[in-house]
Write a structure and sequence with these properties.
The protein is α+β, with helices and mostly antiparallel strands. It has 3 domains: 100 residues, no CATH class; 143 residues, Jelly Rolls; 71 residues, Phage tail protein beta-alpha-beta fold (3-Layer(bab) Sandwich). Helices cover 28% and strands 31% of the residues. The strands form 3 sheets. Strands 1, 2, 3, 4, 5, 6, 7, 8, 9, 10, 11, 12, 13 and 14 form a 14-stranded mixed sheet that branches. Strands 16-19-18 form a 3-stranded mixed sheet, with helices on one face. A two-stranded antiparallel ribbon has the order 15-17. The chain is globular and about 55 Å long.
Amino acid sequence: MEQDENRFEALLGKFMAGTIMPGEHLEMMDLIGNDDRKQALYEACTGSGPVDQQSVEAAFERHWQQLPSRVHPAGRYFVWRRVVAAAAVLLVLGLVVFQSIYRGNPQTFITQVGERKSVILPDGSTVRLNGGSMLVLDGGFNQANRRITFRGEGYFQIEKDAKRPFTIVTEGTTINVLGTVFNLRAYEEEDKIETALISGRVEFTLPANPAKKIPLQPGKKVSVYKEGIRDSSGTAALTGGATENYIVSDITLSPGQPMANETLWTADKLVFDGDNLVLVASKLEKWYGVEVKIANGANREKKFSAIFPHMELDTVLQALARTGSLRFSRSGESVTLDAPTD
């Protein structure tokens, strides 16, 4: 706990000073998590909560008083108290949301699991965010650059700007974009990053070979596997059409659907497109905001394909169970999935 508290305060200090990097900002948001105390202090110091001196200082006091005394030497209280007081004065004067007064501070857009929303970026580009996503604008976005750090799933509609290409950094790829419409799924806990191009043109690079530019054409998608490409049994392998650790393939169009399977989630449709049990569990968590576990001994590579429009969680689980390929149990907000071995 002590290490996390010290790290959180160090990152918050860098944020307030305008020197935090996008990756550090993601780390800070992870440390905040569901901690109401940290969230209140962060919101008060960024202007996303109540913007007045009393609320900023009250949030700081609550944060400090709830910490065990062993976590902080007494002298550090006065250092942080002065920093927060200065922040409060700036807020009261109406001079800041910290992201705007310090050009180096990134702006962050977040969706919780079970939440979906659209955001408009300063350059006019729009992004539809799926549940459990985070988009961080680099310092100087729409001025010196158009660079973001991203994790989660988003449907991007990027404004053209030949002088400033739009760049997306994820855990395993860097994507360079001109005027383009595409879907990007890049969750940290999933084993692959998938980009489906609807229109325009993008190119991506991999950390292992940043000099190599890999173009993607409309109607195609690229799947980048974080730990190597795996065959149907889950064993690491290079399969047909694979180069290094990525595969380029066609996007999927299902009969009677108005758009590609990869983008149907933007029309509020939950899609399983040959997904294994692990990915099914991940999608259910992001879609419904519940905890989904996989039973011991379950066939984690069992594949599922289905499209569910506007359906409750229990309805989806029961439909999957009727196929005979899935068993489930539910206790409140926790679901356990089991798939029998063939």
